Amino acid sequence: MAVLRLAAVAFHLCLLLCPSSSLRRLYDEAANTPRYDMSRTAYHFQPAKNWQNGPMYHNGMYHFFYQYNPHGATWGNGNLSWGHSVSVDLVNWNALHTALDPDSPFDANGCWSGSATILPDGRPAMLYTGIDTANNQVQNVAFPKNASDPLLREWVKPDYNPVIPLPKDVVHDNFRDPSTAWRGRDGLWRVAIAAKVNVSVGSTLIYRSKDFRRWERNAAPLYESSAAGMVECPDLFPVAEPGAQNGLNCAPLNGVARHVLKLSVMATTQDYYVVGRYDDTADTFDAAGADNDTRTWRRIDYGHVYASKSFFDARKNRRVLWGWANESDTEADYVARGWSGVQTVPRKIWLDSDGKQLLQWPIKEIETLRKKKVGLQGTKVNSGGVNEIIGVAGSQADVEVVFKIPTLEGAENIEPNELLDPQNLCGKKGASIRGGIGPFGLLVLASGDLQEHTSVFFSVFKHDGKYKVLMCTDLTKIDYESRRVQAVVRRFVDMDIEETKSISLRTLIDHSVVESFGGGGTSVHHSAGLPRASRDEQEPHVHVQQREPPR
Question: Residue 238, Cα to own-chain centre: how many angstroms?
Answer without folding.
Answer: 18
